[in-house]
Amino acid sequence: MESAAFARVGGMFALVGAGFAARKLGILNRADGAAVLRFGVKFTLPAVLLLTFSAPGGALSGGLSPQTLAMAGAAVLYAAITVVAARAALKGRASREKATLYGVLLGVNVSNFSYPFVRAIWGDAGIKAAAVFDVPNALVTFGLVYALYTQCLARPQYAALRKHGDGGLYDGQWVDSAKGGGAPVGGAPPYHKHGSGVYAYPNSARYEGEWRQNTKHGHGVY
Fold first, then answer.
1. What's the number of CA atoms in the CB half-sphere (13 Å) around residue 33?
2. CB-side exposure of 69: number of CA atoms within 13 Å?
3. Which of 15, 82, 169, 194 has the most other CB atoms within 10 Å of its CB?
4. b/e for 117-142, b at 16 or more Cβ within 10 A?
5. Where are the transmembrane segments (predicted)?
């Protein structure tokens, strides 16, 4: 039985290697991968979950064991802890930086890649356990994370502060000066250029680099 599982896992790695080789040889490109990923997320993954839960012994037939249900509870607990921890750790960060870090830190979106390996090793029982864990995780990854990301980028200082009074245009990270330890400069709103960003001057000059409290600070190119 172990040899059969190893053979199935070896077949999975062979498929991964074939895809990597096709990418290197130019047979497939990034757009092909993106198209397959969209198809997998929108069609293949929901179909796998539906078949898993509707099969005898699945959730829809009332056949999940307490141990399997505990995995769903663990997924919910993990999601709650990471969301609370991320909000606390990212408090006071620039909105764009916070949005990006929310997308990186929250959720475990590995099911499309992991399901074939799980089934190769543990069979249908493994798929059932993985699916029970993945449903709450998917709600966090595709629902809550997207909502937090959109909320961060929709904050008014981004649209309102891109254009300066001198006609220059800034595209980058900001910090609330009331939280970041600085006073407003020249009557400007209480947000300072802070982090990485690009400032286009009215005379067509540009500075791309690091900022700290509205001044150039660190590495950059003018």
1. 13
2. 9
3. 194
4. bbbbeeeeebbbbbbbbbbbbbebbe
5. 6-23, 35-57, 69-90, 99-118, 130-149
Residue with tokens 């600070």: 217
Most confidently predicted of 14-28, 76-90, 123-137, 160-174: 14-28
Determine the residue type at 24. Answer: K
Last residue of a domain, one of 107, 123, 153: 153
Residue type, 200: A
Lowest mean pLDDT among 57-61, 92-96, 113-117: 57-61
CA gap 192, 94 in Å, rounded? 10
| Claim to verify: residue 124 and residue 212 sit in the same structural domain | no
pLDDT band at residue 183 using 50, 70 and 90 as cut-offs = very low
- Confidence class for position 46, pLDDT limits 50, 70, 90: confident
- What is the number of structural domains in the chain? 2
Strand order in the sheet with 215-221: 169-176, 191-200, 206-212, 215-221
Tell whether 125 and 99 lie within a shared domain: yes
Structure token pair of residue 64: 């999940």
